[in-house]
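Agenda item 2: glycine complex prediction
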Amino acid sequence: MGKIISCKAYDIYINEADALNTMIQKLNPSRIFVLVDENTGQHCLHHLIANLDQPFTTITIPAGESFKNIDTCKQVWTALIETKADRKSLLINLGGGVIGDLGGFCAATYMRGITFIQMPTTLLSQVDASVGGKLGVDFDGYKNMVGLFSEPAAVIINTEFLKTLPYKELLSGYAELLKHGLIADEGIWEQLSSIDDITGLDFEQVVYDSVKIKKEVTEQDPTEKGLRKILNFGHTIGHAIETLSFKTDQPLLHGEAIAIGMIMESYLAKEKGFISDDAYEYIKSSIINLYGHKYKSVPKVDDIIAIMLLDKKNAQGKIMFSLLEEIGKANFNQEVDYELIEKARENYMN
Ligand code: GLY
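Presented output:
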């Protein structure tokens, strides 16, 4: 059937079979390039080969966040130069968040910008990274430190690709859907948080609902001056926990860390008097029901704070949180005492 979400500058197509060929006819590019990594080259590229009416050149990069850097961009730019890509060329980014962010960055800077289409293949990238125009790469140990805001010509989502994902990856992406419910739509949170097995979901519908929230927030504040910060709910602590987990024998996926971050930051909201005890317990038990409670060794607060202080979203050395005001509504620019973070940590672990 398919669904379309219209944005100011482009459209997001969900399971619209003809979307890619129609877009290409409209754009009329001189050449088409498809950027994949080793995983999407293996699991998703055949879909394009079978469905794209026009010839294209594939550029393959290694898979994983550790390759989201300028060296990999150099490989992409070099491939474009060597195959004589001109300003009318089109780059299709077929993959997860790394492919979308890095590929979009390469396209937006190659010859001062060529057209690109995002084709996100993971749940995380379908509901988060592909929407809102943030592009970039990690640099010098800092996540997404070099980049820009630039819009694609289209975002084309095929939820069939989700079947290629391991369950752990699917659940990781699901954390962003839960977040969208918690910050913007109580009904969506209630629906998503009451599910025990997410594999049976109608992904076309839940991806649509979630992307709509992300689109509405990012269109009101495209460059994150204010409202867009609510999308960071769960991420201030969650991202620090994710980063610290990489140095342990229990590295966490992004969504696994964000799930813990959402619980701990909900505790902060409770302590600041925004949400009730009951709402906090409801959020905590629902998230633990889905993600388990196996990550007992949440890093020490000093280590979490040290990482949080490096976050580029801070201003004047202050750590700013986006917290729930109620289930379905969030605020931003909230300062929190460090002792409260310790209490949130203890409460999560017990
Ligand atoms: N992932 C948060 C944002 O796009 O602003």
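Discussion summary: The chain has two domains: 3-164, 172-349.
Owner for follow-up: CH.
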